[in-house]
Amino acid sequence: MDPQPDREFAHRPVMADEIVALFAPVPAGWLIDATLGGAGHATLLLDAHPQLKVLGLDQDPDALLAADSRLARFGDRAKTVRTRFDSLGSVVATAIPADEPVVGALFDLGVSSPQLDRAERGFSYRLDAPLDMRMNPAQSLSAATVVNDYSEAALVKVLRDNGDEKFAGRIAKAIVAARPVETTGALAELVRNAIPAPARRRGGHPAKRTFQAIRIEVNDELGVLPVALNAALDALCIGGRIAVLSYHSGEDRIVKQVLRDAETGGCTCPTNFPCVCGAVQRVRLLSRGGRTPSAAELVVNPRAESARLRSAECIELLERGER
């Protein structure tokens, strides 16, 4: 075992100042860090806000090892659980005493820098390694399965739905023709050759969207996200806040819709008419539209460029009452 795992899972928290400021007004209680990673945001929040405790969730054992090391100095103000975040509701019910409020929930979606930078995890188009991309190494579905076993039509759907890939048909056809595709390097080269030359010179690495799409498929990221977001909203006390960092248009659409539904209570009444359907507004949005990183942050952390931050504050509980 690495004696200093936190150094091996170093990660620069995205929009850290904005996240710390968002949770400054919340009352004393627990914040659920649903995507704990190496605990970058969690340690900043615990240092800045003495009224907070953190329950951190992550399915990556390497991340949890690093997080536990970093969080040790906070004692019983921090707990961690190895789980995927769609189990948030059940974890909160068992890990947090019923008389202690949940005052915050934080989601930092996507893949972390340490996962990208470790070749053996198979996430990166820049580092050659066996295809993997599993955030939970114990699960059966991997990138190798998606690339080598999915039909051409299924691959096209994955690339279009998860990656907004304009050349999904060409890429899927090239992948099927080249099977078996065993490494990230081989897949990246296939994608590069399948895309027209003029398009390769725009928008960064030509394989970026394909790798993103396959990673999202492997980890069912878009499928579990609304479940986790709604569970987090259900757990919040009045005055509690939720903040979500997304890095992909599909993620951001889901976050926007879930928060919009909570803001309107699912109201079905015509716009500009009084509500008569009985909908109850559960949150108020803390900003209209997604906030983006500052120019100064992008200089030191270019990977934050696609980040969008959405947030809301709980103003009404469901009929089931507080936890």
Automatic annotation (TrEMBL):
Q: Which Pfam families match?
A: Methyltransf_5
**Coiled-coil regions in this chain?**
none
Q: Name one GO molecular function term.
A: rRNA (cytosine-N4-)-methyltransferase activity
* Keyword S-adenosyl-L-methionine recorded: yes
Q: S-adenosyl-L-methionine as a keyword?
A: yes
Extract one GO cellular component term from the record.
cytoplasm
InterPro entries, sorted: RsmH, SAM-dep_MeTrfase_MraW_recog, SAM-dependent_MTases_sf
Q: Which UniProt keywords apply?
A: Methyltransferase, S-adenosyl-L-methionine, Transferase
GO biological process terms, semicolon-separated: rRNA base methylation
Family, similarity comment: Belongs to the methyltransferase superfamily. RsmH family.
Q: Would you tell me the protein name for this molecule?
A: Unannotated protein
